[in-house]
Design goal:
This protein is α+β, with helices and mostly antiparallel strands and 195 residues long. The chain has 2 domains: 5-76, no CATH class; 80-193, no CATH class. 49% of the residues lie in helices and 20% in strands. The protein has 8 helices and 7 strands; from the N terminus they run ααααββββαβααββα. The strands form 2 sheets. A 4-stranded antiparallel sheet has the order 1-2-3-4, covered by helices on one side. Helix 1 packs across helix 2 (38-47) and helix 1 packs antiparallel against helix 4.
Length: 195
């Protein structure tokens, strides 16, 4: 079984922070501190949370516990976000560039979630609106070529890499190679796969 370094780091941080706050509570209240085990430390801090909330360092405690929560969530659900360039924004007079935000969870297929404009936060589309967005993009195609990697096509079109390579070969997609990575022209991908 592989060692999860992020989980080990999170557990160590949780133990250290809980032990520090438990020591502060025990010292200032004149009560015995629990053993240095996460469950016992957490229970002790929880039992004394009203006292801690009234303490001058309560804000620091909240900040540290929030950081620990984020750290633990990241260790449990390692998730990366990839930004995939899509093209020019389709909204009139907008000079922004559209980018797909693709969430990558190890061991699972990439999941596209939304397309956002670099110039205006109000210009965004959920994954179920992408087909309608594609229609608007064709009016802006003259502004330059957009190239997609195999991973980008996999994520955006929800097909396997083998299917991407097969379709590229069958349909003779224009391709270019940059630093050993193959990219395909968006017009060829759209022509083969539709909007």
């Amino acid at each position: 079984m592989p060692f999860n370094a992020a989980a080990a780091e999170a557990r160590s941080s949780i133990t250290s922070v809980l032990a520090s706050w438990a020591a502060l509570i025990a010292d200032e209240r004149g009560i015995g501190a629990p053993q240095r085990h996460v469950v016992q430390l957490a229970r002790f801090v929880h039992e004394n949370v009203r006292w801690l909330c009234a303490h001058w360092a309560a804000g620091d405690a909240v900040e540290e516990f929030t950081t620990l929560t984020r750290l633990a969530r990241r260790a449990c659900e390692p998730r990366q976000v990839r930004i995939v360039p899509v093209g020019d924004c389709v909204r009139s007079r907008c000079t922004g560039k559209l980018r797909a935000v693709v969430k990558v969870v190890p061991g699972a297929r990439p999941k596209p979630s939304e397309i956002r404009c670099s110039a205006d936060d109000g210009h965004w589309w959920a994954s179920d609106e992408w087909a309608a967005l594609s229609t608007g993009m064709h009016a802006h195609e003259g502004s330059g070529r957009v190239w997609y990697s195999v991973a980008d096509i996999e994520a955006l079109r929800n097909i396997s890499s083998g299917s991407v390579y097969r379709l590229a070969s069958q349909n003779q997609w224009r391709r270019r190679k940059v630093s050993g990575k193959v990219y395909y022209h968006h017009a060829d991908v759209t022509a083969a796969l539709g909007s």
